[in-house]
Amino acid sequence: MDKRACGVLLADEALSPATARWSPRLSRAADEDPAATPAAGDWVLLAPGDQDGAAWVLTEVLPRRTAVERLGVSGTSHTQVLAANADVVAVVAGMVPDLDLGRVERMLALAWSSGARPVVVLTKADLHPDPGAAISLVAASAAGCDLLAVSAPLDEGLDPLRAWLAEGATIALVGASGVGKSTLLNALLGDDVMATRTLGNEGKGRHTTVTRELHLAPGGGAVLDTPGLRSVGLSADTGLDDVFADVIDLADRCRFNDCAHTVEPGCAVLEAVETGALPRRRLDSWRALQREAAFQARRADARLQAAWTSERKARTRAYRARPTHPQGW
């Protein structure tokens, strides 16, 4: 399809599909900010076509209730909208061949920040020797949201998703390639809407979905399918507190309010790591995502970047001013 056109469902009794070209004003807005680009799930205003033989012209994208956004892949600070106006954002991860907890946490950050209800869906439960162990492994990362284990080919574990659809909800599926999103979509819609592919010889997922599409469910509601995400960049305002609520709760118990959780005495976070109450991997993941979000915040705000640079130079001067001692002193 033309880059400056998109598929729409008309607000008539039959929800007829049509193609609409973007208006010049919308094209200019999208050039300036990719987040203004129409996304799957958007409500839009149309006008009768009067250019290039198009039946309809898309003139405006209406304000979004929710939006799943990631940092654009162009290296700028602009964000890309993966799905709009979803009621539920389902982070889909496969139990096999490997459960990437860091990726689950990263995608959950997008889900929590979207304003929609976050859910983690663990697929391929029928292929895992111990699904309960996989669920327990993800439980800490998914605290505060629903955690579902499903087998789409066997039609098991899908009832909560179907119940939300029956209530008229729109569910956005996000996840990496090969985790079973297309198989899950087909099971929810009751038809082979999307072609599916098996995992490759090396256990790596192959891309099946290459566009973002909205599918109406037969019993009500809709499913937003997104392409498999190889990279999930966090924007400056992506919230991490909900994803790492356990770390935040521990940090509140530290002796010092400005504790950096590195070497400080009375650090509740480090104590939890030492006792095994908090996995070291989870603390490392939190630190990495915090650094990434802070970096993007500095990119978006020149004042923050200047303050950070000044602080770094001050620390460097202080280190150099300290007395040094001969080796072995």
Written description of the protein model:
With 329 residues, the chain is of the alpha/beta class. It has three domains: 5-61; 67-225, P-loop containing nucleotide triphosphate hydrolases (Rossmann fold, 3-Layer(aba) Sandwich); 245-321, Ribonucleotide Reductase Protein R1, domain 1 (Orthogonal Bundle), CATH 1.10.40. It is built from nine helices and twelve strands. Strands 9-8-7-10-12-11 form a six-stranded mixed β-sheet, sandwiched between helices. The longest helix has 21 residues, at 280-300. The protein is flat. 34% of the residues are buried. Residues 195-210 and 323-329 have low confidence and may be disordered.
